[in-house]
Amino acid sequence: MKLFYAPGSSSLLPHIALHEAGLPFEAIKINEHTKVTESGGDYWKVNPLGYVPALVLDDGTLLTEGAAIVQYIADQVPSKKLAPPNGTIERTRLQAWLNFFSSEMHKGGFSPLFYKGVPEEGRNVFRARLVARFVHLDGHLRDSGYLLGREYSLADTHFFVVSNWASWVNFDLSPYPNVVAYRQRIASRAAVRTAMETEGLIPWPASPP
Description:
Layout: E1 2-5, H1 12-21, E2 26-31, E3 36-37, E4 54-56, E5 62-64, H2 66-76, H3 89-110, H4 120-142, H5 154-164, H6 177-187, H7 190-198
Parallel strand pairs: 1-2
Antiparallel strand pairs: 1-4, 2-3, 4-5
Helix pairs in contact: 1-2, 1-5, 1-7, 3-4, 3-5, 4-6
């Protein structure tokens, strides 16, 4: 398999998941601005939409969208328990968290803060949204070690990745002590450190790419 990634972006989610799963893969870095791979390849030919992540399977099948990719990864090695079994209420709860982080935290929260053209009034709207989301998450983690309860899952991987961006947009996480402690636990996992080291994100916080 080949994972196409841009350092520190949402592609860090499947990057960590692949290491958690212990599956063999090749990590291929792309420049998000030029859409060129490190070897000079044209990323548009891999993913016509131009964004990451993209996972190309050994038979050439292309998978896109992080929330979908990581569930495929988890289902290849169910013994790792990265995701509950399909068809269970627990799997549905996992999917709810993955969708929440994709829509409410990523696109509806952090993404607009990266664009210089967004006026300050607009930025404040998205900051307020993030505050509400982090208050909710901090409360949830008060009584749970992980998002689905006692065991680590891909939901935790996703939250870790999107919450990383707080340091890049000057969003203060200190008012959320349960989130801060939780992030420290996730950051200590071997798979997380390996993926972040590959992407040049250790020590953290790293400079935005």
